[in-house]
Amino acid sequence: MKVPFVDLKAQHAAIRNQVDSAIASVIGDTAFVGGKYVDEFEKNYASYCGTKYAVGVSSGTSALQLALLAMGVGPGDEVITAANTFIATAEAISHTGATPVFVDMDPVTFNIDVAGIEKAITDKTKVIIPVHLYGQPADMDPILEIAAKHSLLVLEDAAQAQGARYKGKRCGCFGQAAAFSFYPAKNLGAYGDAGAIVTDDAAYVETIRLYMNHGRRSAHDHAVIGFNERLDGLQGAILNAKLGALDEWNKMRRDAAGRYNDLLAGLNVQTPKAGADVEHIYHLYVVRVRDRDAVRSALGEKDVASGIHYPVPVHLLDAYKGLGLGKGSFPVTEQAAGDILTLPMFPHISAEQQQYVAECLAEIVGKKG
Ligand SMILES: *Cc1c(COP(=O)(O)O)cnc(C)c1O
Predict the structure, then answer these.
(1) One domain for residues 155 and 279
(2) Which of 5, 109, 143, 162 has its CA 20 to 30 A from that of 29?
(3) Ligand 1 pocket, 181 CB below 6 A?
(4) pLDDT tens by residue, 59-113
């Protein structure tokens, strides 16, 4: 048997007709950039998240960057975020001219260690970006409390958490704004790059729409030096066609995670833990194992694909050498980087495929005890 890391073909087959007719409509209307299909998706996505507004943009990275611009972040400011995240979170901060300030991760949930946030706050801090990593919501109540106490803004990096819930409410409605990625492999994936910002703040929406469209106020009137970070009509229409199935697909991922938890219970691997009060949607199913690299290549030999999210923490990447943060700066994140392993996870993964992954792992790592 062969188990791919992600297989989106079954998902596409389930919605082929809706997607085909969505694409045909966009082409028929030549609504290629922005337009009514994007407007419709924005309305539906805001209502799905429980926010007043959504703005479709070109990627999750541009969503983060535009939201930070709307929050007034710029040179001289500091933005606190998780050490254990994808580089895009830090890139968005850096491209505003601000400096990313990392906080180590909680060893159980892999999300930002809330106790570390307050220690990282200086008089330059403007925003906290909690990342709902792997599809598990960060512990938002204490984060919002710290933010309120220090008059900071909160931008959720919800790129991996479309539809995930914290205390019954969807990710995206906790901070002043939230950024989503619809990269094809994300829980809600476009057929290309796409992203969105959700917020209740009309002034943010106005600033974001200005910056994402060349700073354009009207035809030839450009108020600021902006960007081209608009959402395609095709992506808007496809996202609209897929949104209705998101909850079902997230449930399929949660069921698959439950099956993995049972199958792997007796083995020498540490399975993921969901915090209290959260509905984890398992964008990624991440375990911890000894001799990770050897386990990973042995799995590969048995045709089981796997990943590492992320093998080198952002502060140790060449791109972020300039921050001067050496090894030992964030020990919990650095240790995890050495032993985390992401197993195949997608809504349509079959029980047989998971059974095979577990059998292979049992052979490689053995039983507990
Ligand atoms: C995917 C991702 C992003 C970036 O999204 P793109 O659409 O790829 O630009 C940002 N943050 C996190 C945590 C992500 O997983």
Answers:
(1) no
(2) 162
(3) yes
(4) 999 999 999 999 999 999 999 999 999 999 999 999 999 999 999 999 999 999 9
Is the shortest distance between the CB of 314 and ligand 1 below 6 Å?
no
- Please indicate, yes or no, if residue 1 is contained in any of the structural domains: no
Q: Which of 226, 243, 260 is the last residue of a domain?
A: 243
Q: Is residue 2 part of a domain?
A: no
Any idea what the CATH number is for the domain that residue 91 is in?
Answer: 3.40.640.10
pLDDT digits (tens, 9 = 90+) for 179-232: 999 999 999 999 999 999 999 999 999 999 999 999 999 999 999 999 999 999
* Domain contains 14: yes
For residues 248 and 195, give the distance between their C-alpha atoms in angstroms, rounded to a whole number: 21
Among protein residues, the one with the nearest Cα to ligand 1's atom 2 is 159
Residue 157 shares a structural domain with residue 192 = yes
CA of 182 relative to ligand 1 center, distance in Å? 8
How many angstroms is it from 268 CA to the middle of ligand 1?
Answer: 31
Quote the domain boundaries for residue 122: 8-243
